[in-house]
Amino acid sequence: MRDVIDPAVEEAERNPPQLGADGQIEFHPAYHRVGRAVWASGIVGADAVEQASLFYLLAQAGEGGHACPVVCTAGLVRALRTTVSDELRERFLPPLLETDYDRAQRGAQFLTERHGGSDVGANRVEAIPDGGVWRLHGEKWFCSVADADQFIVTARPRGAPDGTRGIGCFLVPRDAGGFRIRRLKDKLGTRALATGEIEFEGALAYPLGPLEDGFKTAVTVLNTSRWLNAVGSAGLMRRAYVVASEFAAEREAFGRLIFEFPLVRENLAVMKAETDAALASTMELTALVDRIDKGEADDDDIAWHRLLVNANKFVTSIAATKVVRRGIETLGGNGTIEDFSPLPRLWRDAIVFESWEGTHNVLCAQVLRDLERFDAVDVAVERSGATDELAARLRRSVADPAFGALHGRRQLGELVRALQVQVLRRSDLESAELIRRRHLVSAWDPETDADYAALIDRVVVDDA
Fold it and tell me: pTM here?
């Protein structure tokens, strides 16, 4: 990966896509070199466990311009398998599963509008019936994979009610036209990826499922993105830890390897533990996705997935930014140099991952609503291994919306941390204890913890 993918990703990042005078998006050749390697792996058509494993490896090079296309295409594949007629499925699904990059089609999901953002119910793009199809009119404000061949687009059918109840979900083929890219956005991270503002001017559209289920269909697609976002965050963290630990094992200062200094070891231990924890909770989520895809999930699995896919994305994306930042600290000034390590790129991408498919507050608000809707506090507590004390606080947040709006986010963070500790303990990883003390023990003080130094040592050497 480092010898083949990394140089191409670095080159593509330095030469981001451009919007040509003819409205076509032009990529640097390095972008396509990465894409050919990614698509040849068969990642889009893989089952959930293999897909997550491949995506974890891919993300260790950063977003690279292809992580988002993989995620969006995977979400569209799931939607086509379950929501459309055989005729549409046979037409649109096979090119998405093609493993030859130069022949494959890629998917995108265009949901965000300037005035809507996370408030999808405020969206204004309109769908107008035209015989047996629909035509879309309006603007989408944040459209990643703007070069995609097939778009999932939310729009309000003419005459539909306000709010999310009136939102439909549509498939728009690029080759039918009826849209224009106004401009590409200049982003902090994921710079090799084409993200634009798009105006629809009568674009041909096919409903994905019943119109009245449009918002539900869109959420199903988003849940694929939120699951794989967490996988990607874990990949970013793993790469940052590897870079930092290798540097610390070779860099000498004041006559010693910097790995020998207690604060460096502590920093690496935290990076290691957070990386292990993110992967633990995300692979637990992956197992749920796999059971759902295979039709083997029970009602509790469905409810737990609905909660965990949002809460886990929130926790892992924040952790990723912090872990990569710790990696940069380990390298000192070298950590800020673009051609010294991938850390500056990983840090920029991690910040974008935080906003990708839902801000933290929106995701937490959704989990609180789902806890009430599915009467799922008991399921969440049992599956996560949370304490009775946390269970009582969660019940208060569900019963008292004002209390939950202010305090629920902290509680959901603890819920995910409890799950991470439980899963890590199954593998006898020392990271479990460091995560428990840092995030779940009230008023824990490392200075009064006689075992703390030994725990740090156990974590940094426990790299099974």
Answer: 0.96
